[in-house]
Automatic annotation (TrEMBL):
SUPFAM superfamilies: Formate/glycerate dehydrogenase catalytic domain-like. InterPro entries: AASS, AlaDH/PNT_N. This is Lysine-ketoglutarate reductase saccharopine dehydrogenase bifunctional enzyme. Keywords: Oxidoreductase. The lineage of its organism: Eukaryota, Sar, Stramenopiles, Ochrophyta, Eustigmatophyceae. The keyword Transmembrane helix does not apply. It comes from Nannochloropsis gaditana. GO terms for cellular component: cytoplasm. One of its GO terms (biological process) is lysine biosynthetic process via aminoadipic acid. Residues 353-381 are annotated as: Disordered.
């Protein structure tokens, strides 16, 4: 037996086809404990250790000098990476955002999986909405090591340094549109031979363009709108206006949805009784999109004293705040200061069809056809979806000058005109928005 080091234990299984070596941490400073190494024994293996030749069982190896011979070894990490358990799921600790508390599975889901014989490993977290104890009670194993898991679930992007090779990951990776900031993540996923299941691509039918099953929904819209109110208060304070919005806490400060809604109602009560500074009135909130996010945001907005208006009415609304005698002599007087205004912006308010002279020719696009008889001359929904290059943006001309807050809930990719560019924002700011610069 080889016993050159007291810290090295060699166990030879002569009746099997492998030899196990257990080396202490000091043999491998990079390890976090004992390193378990497995080598396969050739059929003609001899007992002599003076000229021993060992064959590693895994391709991921590194050199370690030990007396009296050098051996190639595979660490326990490499071993686990090569052989994950197909019936084990891992849940990562969210690290992308410091306020992130969401989890891909709730304890009740873990319990249902455990009853079916599926093991769930959960990385401990103090931020997660569900405590570790709830997962443990549901049957999960709370541990840092997710190496045995073949499927690893997260909400947001997993750091490149934490990715495990040859696993399946489910998360919002934010790489589908070629987001530059996440290209290193995509490169690492390819390099490590990871299978990525992006929530954005999961549909009911499995077809591209089908109804998504995992998406930002009503709660995302509500949380976003609550945060917008606090952001609005800070923005107005920086411009010299003290408003009730400053007293609206961020979403993460509320213990639950009911408390958040109660806070917005209390804020609305102050708006109705104390009013807003006349210099920022009418305060108009524009909503784009018809989906769940937009609906959730509007649900919170309607907790405030409010009035809905049409896009076409915005110029008159702002003009009424000033009136012939200036701001103090407006048509509705202080009524404008005791509520907020909402406007739902449709697609036809965002773009209009370009003339033939304005259109930019493209090799893949045929000559511009006239709009269908049943549609507006300046906008046809079906045509816009098929040929967005035939349209130009008009939001910055017809809507943005009258708006105090924009709640954007539309889908966008590079085929379509941008809703509002940085250059347009800069121009609006310097030229002065309608109604005195909101």
């Amino acid at each position: 037996m080889y016993n050159a080091r007291s810290s090295t234990l060699i166990r030879r299984f002569w009746g099997q086809t492998k030899i196990d070596f257990a080396l202490k941490t000091r043999a491998d400073p990079a390890s976090q404990g004992d390193t378990h190494i497995v080598f396969y024994r050739p059929r003609n293996f001899h007992a002599s250790t003076s000229n021993i030749k060992l064959y590693p069982s895994h391709s991921v190896c590194r050199s370690l000098n030990t007396h009296p011979f050098r051996m190639r070894y595979a660490s326990s990490t490499a071993s686990a990476r090569a052989f994950p358990d197909p019936r084990t799921i891992g849940i990562v600790r969210e690290t992308f955002g410091k306020w992130e508390r969401r989890a891909p599975l709730a304890p009740k889901h873990v319990q249902a999986l455990a009853q079916k014989g599926i093991k769930v490993l959960v990385q401990p977290s103090f931020r997660r909405a569900y405590p570790d104890s709830a997962y443990a009670a549901a049957g999960a194993s709370i541990q840092e090591d997710l190496l045995p898991a073949s499927l690893i679930l997260g909400v947001k992007q997993v750091p490149v340094s934490a990715l495990l090779p040859e696993r399946t990951y489910m998360m919002f990776a934010h790489v589908l549109k070629g987001q530059l900031e996440n290209m290193p993540l995509l490169d690492a996923i390819r390099r490590l031979k990871i299978r990525l299941l992006d929530y954005e691509c999961i549909t009911e039918t499995g077809d591209r363009g089908g109804a998504r099953t995992v998406f930002f929904g009503r709660f995302a819209g509500m949380a976003g709108m609550v945060d917008i109110l606090q952001g609005l208060g800070q923005n107005l304070l920086a411009r010299g206006y003290n408003t009730p919005f400053l007293n609206s806490p961020y979403t993460y400060m509320h213990p639950g949805l009911d408390a958040a809604k109660a806070g917005v109602r209390a804020l609305g009560g102050k708006v109705a009784t104390e009013g807003l500074p006349r210099e920022i009135c009418p305060l108009v909130v524009a909503f784009t999109g018809r989906g769940r996010v937009a609906q959730g945001a509007q649900e919170v907005f309607e907790l405030l004293p409010h009035e809905w208006v049409e896009v076409k009415d915005l110029p008159a609304l702002v003009a009424s705040a000033q009136g012939e005698g200036g701001r103090e002599g407006g048509r509705e007087g202080k009524a404008l200061q005791r509520k907020v205004y909402g406007v739902r912006v449709e697609e036809k308010d965002m773009v209009e069809r370009m003339s033939t002279e304005q259109a930019v020719p493209q090799a893949s696009v045929q000559s511009i056809d006239p709009p269908t008889p049943s549609s507006s001359p300046s906008y046809a929904r079906d045509e816009y979806r098929l040929h967005p290059e035939r349209y130009r943006p008009i939001f910055h001309e017809r809507v943005a000058p009258y708006v105090s807050v924009l709640v954007n809930g539309i889908y966008w990719d590079q085929r379509y005109p941008r809703l509002l560019t940085k250059a347009q924002m800069k121009e609006l700011w310097h030229s002065g928005l309608k109604g005195g610069g909101r």
